[in-house]
Design brief:
Structural class: alpha/beta
Number of strands: 15
Order of helices and strands: EEEEHEHHEHHEEEEEHHEEHHHEE
Bound molecules: zinc ion
């Protein structure tokens, strides 16, 4: 059984494939930050919370990727009074998970993309919140929210006391090493988030994936994340070369990876990320895109 690991006063996290945060009030009411990817993750979270004689009353989801809200459905069935909070816009995906593979594919996705990695079970959302820097009062607890968009459209990081639950605002170093092209929705937004995160006022930072990072080590971890994003941009720029279609760019990048995509899901996640880098380069005037005779081609700008 997984157990909560204390991080500070009235706060802890449940380590796992996706780290889940837990903060609680003196009266024992607890709030989770994310819930993991599925029923089992939700069950582990509930057991861990109840094992500390706490009562889970709310969940604050940081963004709408299935591995972060997939435990909601189980928890809502077990705790009908549970209140779910989600960022504006991201909340739509929690309620309609179809939007995730739909957005990656750009049309009705084939069954191969309608799987648990890209679609969790739908979740009610009782409250939405803006991902602006500010406070969020949940179950009597004053949490702090930080804008952390880039990896997801309206990703949030959540702070409590000296602890920041950063979710996928950045990846832990060991996790980052596995992703040659980290998933991103908005390259400029992600780089801006990595810069802003340096000034978030906490001592411990819990990424969604990987062990907690101390304030002392945070700048190096953020820089490693920024370097990974910049390297991905350079891979895409090199793949454009003297001109290429979008698919040619994807295939040139994929061929050079240590572990290229091996399933439709990983292919479309990579493709979406590469399209984000192409948009970033296009908006910066560093590449152009031209449609000729029905074919869209990217060129160096
Ligand atoms: Zn994510």
């Amino acid at each position: 059984m997984r157990e909560l690991v204390p991080l500070g006063e009235n706060c802890a996290y449940l380590p796992g494939g996706v780290n889940v945060g837990v903060v609680w009030a003196p009266d024992g009411r607890a709030v989770a930050v994310d819930t993991g990817g599925d029923r089992d993750a939700g069950r582990d979270l509930l057991r861990a919370v109840e094992g500390r004689s706490l009562r889970l009353v709310a969940v604050v989801n940081t963004h709408s990727h299935a591995d972060h809200y997939g435990g909601n459905d189980y928890l809502l069935r077990q705790c009908p009074q549970l209140e779910i909070w989600a960022p504006v816009l991201e909340e739509a995906v929690l309620r309609y998970p179809y939007l995730e593979p739909f957005s990656l594919y750009g049309a009705r996705p084939p069954q191969a993309l309608q799987n648990k990695w890209l679609m969790a079970r739908p979740s009610s959302v009782h409250h939405t919140y803006d991902t602006l820097d500010g406070e969020l009062e949940v179950a009597g607890l004053r949490l702090r929210v930080h804008r952390a968009d880039g990896h997801a459209v309206r990703q949030a990081a959540v702070g409590w006391g000296s602890v920041c639950y950063a979710a996928d605002a950045f990846f832990g170093p060991e996790v980052l090493a596995k992703y040659e092209v980290p998933f991103t929705h908005d390259v400029a937004g992600q780089l801006a988030t990595l810069k802003r995160a340096e000034s978030w006022p906490y001592e411990v930072f819990v990424p969604g994936h990987g062990p907690p990072v101390s304030r002392e080590h945070l700048p190096a971890v953020l820089e490693a994340n920024a370097q990974a994003v910049r390297r991905a941009t350079e891979r895409v720029r090199a793949a454009v070369g003297g001109g290429a279609t979008s698919d040619e760019v994807v295939h040139r990048v994929a061929r050079a990876l240590r572990s290229p995509p091996a399933t439709p899901s990983t292919y479309f996640l990579l493709r979406s990320t590469i399209m984000a880098h192409l948009a970033y380069l296009l908006d910066a005037g560093e590449v152009q895109c031209v449609v000729e005779a029905g074919v869209l081609r990217w060129f160096a700008g």
